[in-house]
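Hi R.,

Here's the chain you asked about this morning:
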Amino acid sequence: MRAVRATAAGAAELHVVGLSSLVQGREAVFLDDLDLIETLRPEDTDLVHDDSSHCRPGRLRPDAPLHLGHRDATRRPDPLADPSHRHAIAVTTDLKRGAREAIEQLADEVVHHCRQADPSILDHPEFAERLTRECVVFLHRLLFLFYIEARGAELGVVPMHTDAYRRGYSLAALRDLELVPLDTPAERDGHYFAASLKLLFRLIQRGYPEAPVPAHFDHSAGFALSGLRSELFDDARTPMLSAARLRNHVLQAVVRRLSLSHPQGKQRVGRIAYAQLGINQLGAVHEGLLSFTGCFAREDLYEVRAAADRDDDDARTWFVGHSNISSYSPDEIVRVHPPGKFLYRLAGRDRERSGSYYTPEVLTRCLTRYSLAERLPGASADDILRWTICEPAMGSGAFLNEAIDQLADAYLARKQAELGRTIGPEQYPHERQR
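And here is the predicted structure, written out as tokens:
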């Protein structure tokens, strides 16, 4: 423990450096009214000999820092922290693939838990559909948090400017653990990631602190967060995922799939830059997920694709049972999925029936520009504010978002001309957001 400060809510803010190998060397901040803090007293401690390779003599020195708190928060060297690696890559294709793979991993983990708790639930005819729906909700929670934290200063939804939230409770803090090796069974099968996400989801939904904070109190410690009270973060939406004890290695892989780009050729792995993603790009990911459906393999299923595209995960893929696999060459077989494996893959016919297709941004921008060209001539800035926009087939709102953006630019251009004033470049994004 490095320091303790009082917060405006009357809690203790503890600045700590962890010791466990999961978070070795990582600094964090925790609040004692959100975390169970257990003080380790020397008189209640037994010393035992540690002959493992992880033992460091320096930890036995009298002045070595004490470990405080049930959620370790320390750091190993981050391979992406090097300036040559720590670059942001906004690749929607990577995010679509990562989201699909993350949903499959989450579902398989729930199945692992259900087989131990109640194996009969797997035979329920609607189990795959319910599980798919919950995993998609869970994934959208993560995507939402990645986005609002990356744009913390601009959106103001979460207090990323505070040490307590950013280093103790944010998804960004877990993102920093995406490449930490989980060397021991305790690290792999522990529940640090699950406990952290559960607490974070609760903070986003309910807010913090619950009691009003005195206006005269020092606000330099702790943080304040307004609850969203959103259906997205309602625990009732994810009963199976909430009941399952999701293990560290699964959730670490999920965070990693949503966090890192997929290198092509000689490219190196980089972090996906959520701050550079627009609503349209996230809408493309959302619409992409609508094109998939979840199911369980009832037999050995062979994933096959054209030999020339065998290593291209974005190429067209088929699933073939054992009785038909002889029609394909070994070069066309990608992998085999055993019975019980959850698959979240393309459902073309369902897609056609629902009419759910994503409109590319280049098309929405063009169509919106020419549509507004019929209305904008002669309109004043205040006229634009009185308009009502209707998108009959909204979907993820691609046309609606584009219309709002173009009308915001048109309004600001007219308002500046009418008032004879110019908005500075640094102030323009804020005025446009308003």
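One quick note: The radius of gyration is 25 Å.

Cheers,
M.
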